[in-house]
Amino acid sequence: MTKVGFISLGCSKNLVDTEVMLHHLMEAGYEIAPDESDADIVVVNTCGFIEDAKRESVDNILDLAWLKENAHLRGIVVTGCLAERYREEIFREMPEVDALVGVGSLDRIALAVAAVDRGETYSAFDDKEASPLGGARVLTSDPYSVYLKIAEGCDNRCSYCAIPLIRGGLRSRTVEDIVEEAKDLEALGAKELNLIAQDTSRYGLDLYGEYRLADLVRAICRETEIPWIRLLYCYPDKITDDLIAEMRDNPRLLPYMDIPIQHISDPILSAMNRHGDSALIRDTVARLRREIPGITLRSTAIVGFPGEGETEFEELCAFIKEARFDRFGAFPYSAEEDTPAAAFDGQVEEQVKQDRYDILMQTQLEISREMQEAKVGRTLTVLCEGYDRPAAIYVGRSEADAPDIDGKVFFSAPRRVPAGTFVQVRITEAMDYDLVGEMIEGDNP
Length: 445
Hints:
The structure is a single chain. By secondary structure, the protein is of the alpha/beta class. The chain has three domains: 3-124, Rossmann fold, CATH 3.40.50; 145-373, pyruvate-formate lyase- activating enzyme (Alpha-Beta Horseshoe); 379-440, CATH 2.40.50.140. The protein has helices at residues 12-27, 51-70, 81-85, 87-93, 109-117, 163-167, 175-187, 205-208, 213-223, 241-249, 266-271, 278-291, 310-323, 350-373; strands at 3-8, 31-32, 41-46, 75-80, 99-101, 122-124, 145-149, 151-152, 171-172, 192-196, 228-231, 253-258, 296-303, 327-332, 379-388, 393-398, 409-412, 422-430, 435-440. The strands form four sheets. It has a six-stranded parallel β-sheet, sandwiched between helices. The protein has a six-stranded parallel β-sheet with strand order 7-10-11-12-13-14. The longest helix has 24 residues, at 350-373. The chain starts with a strand and ends in a 5-residue tail after the last strand.
C-alpha cells in the first residue's frame, strides 16, 4: 500500500485544509505515514503569505527533493498558497515536484496522489471561489483543542496583503454547517473550540447581509456543551455591540479577542487601506476593556511599511505603551508581488525594518513582564495539555492563552492529570510569556 506523508506549513487555517485532505486520502485507501522519511509520496501544504513563509515552503520542498534523489521517496505533491500563487514557476524551477493542487482543488488530492503513484505529473486549479467549504477532517492534534474554520477568503483588500489574490473573496459557511461540525468535534472530545477565518468578525456578511458572528456563537452554544469558545482574527471596525454583549454575558465565550491593528498612524492606516482610523482603534480597545472586565486583548502590527518614518514609528511605539496589549506580535513589512503597496514610494530599508521590529518587541516584552507578574498569587482555570517528562511538570493554557501563539502555564500536581482536563492552578512564578504554578483542588468547568 502506498504511504503518504504530510507537511503542513503556515497558519491554523492551512492546518484545517491539511486535515480535510488527510480525510480524502484515507477515504481513498491510502496509508498515512507519520514521518515523511517513511513515505512513498509526500504532500506539502504550503504558505505563501510573506517572504519568510515562502522561503520556508521552498526549503521544505528542496529537502524532499533530496529525499527523492537519495532515498525511497517517489513523489512530491505541492498544495496550498504557494502552489496557487506560483503554479508555473514551481513546475519550471522545481522539476522534482510531480503534482500541484491549488486551494480550490483540495478535494482532488486523492486524484493527484494516484497520478503521481502511476508516475505521472498532475495539476488541478479549479475556481477557488466555487470550491467546497468545510468537509470531514482527520484531526492531527489532540482533540480537546481544535480549530473550526468558519469562512474562506477575504474582502478587506489591505494594500499589503496577497490573501484575496490567493484565496479569493469572503465566503462564509452557513451557521447550520458550522454547528454540525462543532457537534462532530465535541463528539471527538473537543473542550476548546477556536473559531478562525481571515476575518472572523466579518462572518456572515456575504451570506446574510449582516455580521453574524454573535449569532453563530449562540447557535454553537445551544447545540453543544463545549466549555471554551475562542475568537481569533476580529478586525477593530467590525466588532459589534452584539458581539461584545455576547462575550460579556456568555461564560463559555472566552473573554479573549485577537484584534490585528497593523498600525496606529492615520497616514499609514490609510495607505494600508485599513478600515478604520486611529480613533476607531483606540475607541475599540477602550470599549472592550470597559464592557468586558478582565478581557485579554491580543494584537499585531507591521513595522517598516512604505512611508513609515521615525515619527510614525514613534507614534506606534507610544500607542503600544498606552494600550498595553496582553499579547502582541509584530512583523517587518514584506513587499508582495501584485499588491498595491509593493509599488508604493518610500520603501523602508531592511535593516531599518529589523531595528524597528526589535525596538517594538522589546517594548512589548517589558509590558508582558509587568502583566505576567500581576498574575502571581491568582488562581487560574487551566486546560491541561500533557506532562513534560524531562522537566517533570505538567503544561497547559489558561483562557488568556490561545494555542500555538501565546504562552503556557507550567504546573505541579498532587495527582495524575489527563490531557484535556480543566484544573485550578495557583500561580507562583511569572516568566516573560509563561507562568508557573501548582494545581489546587477546586471546581472546574
